[in-house]
């Protein structure tokens, strides 16, 4: 009895503690990176224009134009990319579906061989493959997972990808423009808010990495700050040359 209780306790402890980090990132990773992209690109654009000693009205127009152009570009690119990927996957699924219909025994044998290659006893592998192949849709799902590495029931949506990319990019790009929209006439409030946003984005990214939140935040702050500094210097240089 003591042995059984000990094993049960260990099983419960293993179940409670055996958790893994979300290595794929789920929705968090693309959302944060989209916002970060919008923030860095629009901040760099605005500081580059500000370096040319233009009016704050010009900076605001530049920031809003950069927000709109970048968000629509990201949405269009993401839609096209995901749609093309989905069409390719669906074409491959059609090929696999035809093979299952025309050569069911060959596909069943192929599945059994795959399990055998992974260490399953040959007789058991053939029996598992036979049972799984009785349902055509289940067979298609298993072959797609094993051969293509995809889940036919969980294909990405081009519309969702486009809308989320548009929203996250626009949100990030809005940060450096927001102080101007609220009445600021100098660059430093926009820089301050943008740098806070960069640090926050970097800290959030730490949730899907093994780095500490402060390291990830400071790293992103340094990269975004470098981009803003370089474009400001270039804007100053070009503004002087043009002037």
Fold blueprint:
Elements: H1 2-17, H2 28-50, H3 56-102, H4 104-117, H5 122-132, H6 136-148, H7 158-181, H8 188-205, H9 213-242
How far apart are the termini? 89 Å
Instruction: Give the helices and strands as they follow along the chain.
Output: HHHHHHHHH
Helix coverage percent of residues?
over 70%
Overall pLDDT: 85
| Oligomeric state | single chain
Structural class: mainly alpha
Characterize the main sheet. Answer: none
Q: Using the alpha-carbon principal axes, give the shape.
A: elongated
**Strand residues, percent:** under 5%
Rg, nearest Å: 27 Å
Characterise this structure:
The protein is mainly α. It contains nine helices and no strands. The protein has helices at 2-17, 28-50, 56-102, 104-117, 122-132, 136-148, 158-181, 188-205, 213-242. Helix 8 packs antiparallel against helix 9. Mean pLDDT is 85; it is low at 22-26.
């Amino acid at each position: 009895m003591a042995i059984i209780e000990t094993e049960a306790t260990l099983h419960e402890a293993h179940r409670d503690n055996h958790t893994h980090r979300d290595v794929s990132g789920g929705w968090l990773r693309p959302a944060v990176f989209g916002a970060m992209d919008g923030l860095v690109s629009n901040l760099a654009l605005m500081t580059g224009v500000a370096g040319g000693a233009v009016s704050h009205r010009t900076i605001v127009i530049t920031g809003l134009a950069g927000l709109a152009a970048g968000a629509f570009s990201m949405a269009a690119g993401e839609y096209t990319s995901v749609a093309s990927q989905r069409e390719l996957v669906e074409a491959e699924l059609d090929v696999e579906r035809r093979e299952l219909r025309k050569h069911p025994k060959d596909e069943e044998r192929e599945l059994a061989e795959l399990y055998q290659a992974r260490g399953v006893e040959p007789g058991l592998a053939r029996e598992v493959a036979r049972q799984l192949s009785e349902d055509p849709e289940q067979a298609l799902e298993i072959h797609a997972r094993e051969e293509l590495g995809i889940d036919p029931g969980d294909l990405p949506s081009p519309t969702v990808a486009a809308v989320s990319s548009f929203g996250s990019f626009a949100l990030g790009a809005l940060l450096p423009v927001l102080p101007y929209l609220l009445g600021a006439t100098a660059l430093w409030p926009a820089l301050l808010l943008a740098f806070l946003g960069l640090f926050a984005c970097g800290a959030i990214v730490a949730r899907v990495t093994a780095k500490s939140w402060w390291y990830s935040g400071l790293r992103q702050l340094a990269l975004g700050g470098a981009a803003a500094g370089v474009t400001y210097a270039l804007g100053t240089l070009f503004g002087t040359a043009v002037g």
